């Protein structure tokens, strides 16, 4: 993503043109995107709410990930007033189509944690162990 390009709803180019897996990974790959989508599946959130839930993500990286998700049409931002008013983020109808994938990855991750005897989450209140309800 070009840092100097204005934010907007422009499809980002795929590294491997015509490859469905490359297109999917470009849209939802990365360390934080699935976690962001998971929390937005539970309802719209302000930037600060996302920062708390997706911790330890930095504000810079969260901003970048949100811009990429918005550019791919998966989330939308709704400024609640004049700048610098808080902005609400929510899944778009297109983003909702990803919820079965996000939930599948979450369930697989639970099994993987049990298999590896991983230590508990440092802040269980923010852990993403809750199933996504009402998956379309």
Sequence-ordered SSE layout with sheet pairings:
Elements lengths: L19 H9 L4 H9 L3 E2 H7 L5 H13 L3 E5 L7 E5 L1 H4 L2 H18 L20
Antiparallel strand pairs: 1-3, 2-3
Molecular structure report:
- The chain is mostly helical.
- 44% of the residues lie in helices and 9% in strands.
- It has helices at 20-28, 33-41, 47-53, 59-71, 93-96, 99-116, and strands spanning 45-46, 75-79, 87-91.
- A three-stranded antiparallel β-sheet has the order 1-3-2.
- A hairpin with a 7-residue loop joins strand 2 and strand 3.
- The longest helix has 18 residues, at 99-116.
- The chain is globular and about 50 Å long.
- The protein starts with 19 loop residues before the first helix and ends in a 20-residue tail after the last helix.
- Residues 1-6 have low confidence and may be disordered.
**Structural class of the secondary elements?**
mainly alpha
Strand content: 5-15%
Task: Please give the share of residues in helix.
Answer: 40-55%
**Strands ordered across the widest β-sheet:** 1-3-2
The string of secondary-structure elements, in order, is HHEHHEEHH
* Largest sheet data: 3 strands, antiparallel
What is the CA-atom radius of gyration, in angstroms?
Answer: 15 Å
């Amino acid at each position: 993503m070009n840092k100097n390009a204005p934010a907007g709803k422009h499809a980002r180019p795929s590294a491997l043109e015509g490859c469905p897996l490359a297109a999917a990974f470009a849209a939802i790959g990365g360390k934080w995107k699935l976690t962001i989508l998971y929390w937005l599946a539970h309802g719209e959130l302000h930037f600060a709410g996302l920062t708390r839930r997706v911790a330890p993500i930095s504000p810079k990286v969260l901003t970048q990930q949100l811009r990429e998700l918005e550019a791919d049409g998966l989330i939308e931002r709704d400024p609640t007033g004049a700048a610098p008013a808080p902005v609400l983020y929510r899944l778009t109808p297109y983003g909702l189509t990803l919820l079965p994938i996000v939930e599948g990855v979450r369930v697989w991750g639970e099994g993987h944690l049990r298999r590896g005897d991983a230590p508990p989450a440092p802040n269980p209140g923010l852990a993403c162990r809750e199933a996504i309800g009402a998956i379309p």
